[in-house]
Amino acid sequence: MTADDLVSLRRDLHRKPEPAWREFYTTARIVDELESRLGDDLDGLHVGPEAIAGDHRMAVPDDPELTHWYERARDAGVDPDVLERLEGGYTGAVAVLERGDGPTVGLRVDIDALPRRESDDPTHAPTAAGFRSEHEGAMHACGHDAHATIGVGVAERIAASDDFSGTLKVFFQPAEEVVGGGKSMAESEHIQDIDALLAVHIGLDHPTGEIVAGIDGFLAVSHLEAEFTGESAHAGGHPEQGRNAVQAMATAVQNLYGIPRHNDGKTRVNAGVVEGGSAANVIPDEARIVAEVRGETTDLMEYMKGRTRQVLRSAARMHDCEVDIETGAEAPSATSDGELVSIVADVAGDTTGVDRVLERDELGGSEDATFLMRAVQEHGGTACYVGVGTDHPGGHHTATFDVDEDSIGHGIDVLAGAIERLGDESV
């Protein structure tokens, strides 16, 4: 695969972004690339339900939403046989290359987009070059189009390499943005024999030419949804007959931000969605909060989750309302293993185009690659999360985010080199 091929693939994926569990076109396109470029060198390709443990999917959208995106992918002309295997939102793939005796190495890349509109400013590079999102309201605003491209590029590089002995599995993971897909891959059979796992993210406020060999500082995260129920009444005529669900919700929001922080490490809480009511003259009988909590460790996240549930229940009781609380998607914390960090740093230091290597840095956010990392570590393997710097004009998750496409090659070179080193050292 040439540099131009890589750019073409990345731009095609950027042009057709798909949010979590709707990555129908994206998965089918990845499958086509792998099959056409690797041919007989591809020893296994597990697609959709074969790639994940479906019972562990989290934050799956409803059927009408899935159907809309499924039909959109069909209209785009993807292979109907592949598309059929993805029906119901069972997206993602695992590619397998067997190259003799040696370790089983995994590479995890995520493939989903964000539900936000992309800038149409003429100075925005995708707009100027004609590959801006064709799906209004969806955008690759975090570089997962580049991640998928890196995954294909690494697979092709290892397939052609004489320096790797062992097995490579590339995990093309769906639904990272809603921390909904990592667990389903971590619970699949494909992770159980991994000796060393590499995960990758582009950007993270590191410039082109900079590599972070091992990223730590993952905040464990949990999403919660609270539905407050009261009783409606006329706000002017009989306000005393109502039980105000919005008042309960507002109390909860205020008190969530008053939860005491913990001496053991970083904690976070955020009420990201608050809504309720129907008219100015009606005491609202329904209101809703969608919130998230985070912690530097999984235990700290659980502390914040417990206190959040306490606040929500107390606010409901204060205003004579009921509240139903559901826990949504979650992801644990994780740490990159020093053994792999050293290998990545050593390879990166000898990679053309890389002019600075950081051994460690902190993410400061959450990532469901941690499910796969911890699964490998619990089975006695090692795991490492690698940062590939890229110049991006807008911050992650913004309408003007873009990647410096030269960094895609840097990522492939470093990751393929580290994988080769792992296979070579086992001989």
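^ that was protein a. below is b, sequence first then the tokens
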Amino acid sequence: MPAPRRFEPHYRRIIADVRQKIATGEWPPGHKLPSTKALAEFYEVGSPSTVRQAITILIETGELYGHQGLGVFVAEGPSSS
């Protein structure tokens, strides 16, 4: 019998995917993320608050930053100095 699959909260799946997009260069520093609504549709989550939760965590860790009225953007990577 296969092992039961562990449940992974949707916001963690979103965080992992955003980090992957940043790591591969698909979303380079300064890239503007799609709207919360668009991301909720893309990730097939029922509530935009799930996407906001993921974005909030990524902002707190310094991977993204937000500008009121402009959107959320990929932060610059750590400096190499």
